[in-house]
Amino acid sequence: MRVNTLKADRDYVLERLREKGLDARADEHLPEAIYLPVEGPFKLPEAEKKVVVDKFTAESVIMGSNVYVPGVRSFEGVRKGDEVLIVSELGHVVAFGVAEMDEDEVLRARRGLAVRVLRPVYRLPAIRELEEFGEGLIYPQSLPAMLTSRVLEPEPGELIVDMTCAPGGKLSHICQLTANRARVLGFDRSSRRLRETRAVLARLGCEAAAIRADSRYLDVDFPFLVGRADRVLVDPPCSALGVLPKLYDLKDERELASLAEYQKQFIKVAARLVRPGGVVVYSVCTMTVAECEELVAFAVEECGLEVDEQPLYLASRGLPGLAPRSELLQRFHPHIHGSGYFIARFRRLG
Length: 350
Known about the structure:
The chain is an alpha/beta fold. The protein has helices spanning about 10-20, 55-60, 105-110, 130-135, 145-150, 170-175, 190-205, 220, 255-275, 295-300, 335; strands at about 1-5, 25, 35, 50-55, 65-70, 70-75, 85-90, 95-100, 115-120, 140, 160, 185-190, 210, 230-235, 275-285, 305, 315, 330, 340-350. Strands 11, 12, 13, 14, 15, 16, 17, 18 and 19 form a nine-stranded mixed β-sheet that branches. A six-stranded mixed β-sheet has the order 5-9-8-7-4-6. A hairpin with a 7-residue loop joins strand 2 and strand 3 (about 35). Helix 5 packs across helix 6 (about 170-175) and helix 9 (about 255-275) runs parallel beside helix 10 (about 295-300).
């Protein structure tokens, strides 16, 4: 989690969480980062009935989240009060709980609590239910995601563009690192996700503009930004193979290749927005070469960018021989670092 230092310091937040009996600990690398150890795996009780949920719900429930109606795929034969096992569509058992609705209610409802989880395979506190979350003192965010904003090195007074800002994690972190004294512009094409982003900014007390636009065309739609931005963050849609917890993933090579081509459109525009000598940071929560080192090679060979050294390395370097200056890239490997992630920092030539 990230402590929102616009509202409180880390020691104060740690003290409050520990008073609640939580084993909150300070990260040794980032002064705004804290974490809670994961408990488990636990053996689950038996139950005759099962509730089937989608992949994303299952990956939340395995850590202790409740089941809500939109995530339900099958509620067959279940009545309110029944003890149930919650399983993924591929049969992974992720938790034991009690139904809060009858089957017919789930079929009619669009929202609401379907199953209250009593025993997940793993356990973490419900962060979003803590007072500290509601007060805007904390934001759930992975260490690599926090590191990305640190690698960007935003400064007060600068013009900073976040090309894919929803749901607001890195955008709000940039505001935090500049003490709300930079001109921060965030863009996203989804109205729904922008509403979520603005809610995050308001809760955390961050001052940034969240603007609806397709960032692949920012140079055309917002020509005043061309060659003006001091720093540009590119965190485009990706295969997300590095996000944990993960029960399974179903992607083929054609889909991965399509994503890499999509990402190239963002980095091309970022190179046009940033001023000469300015910084572009590219990050993805995945590990495929096509979305990582090969994207870096494209940025250098086709976009007028050069690989720049990062101010802080907490993981491995880039895979050798696959991109210029691969030793300056940063890779998180799931089996080593607990999640998969990639960060590249560039400067614009000229």
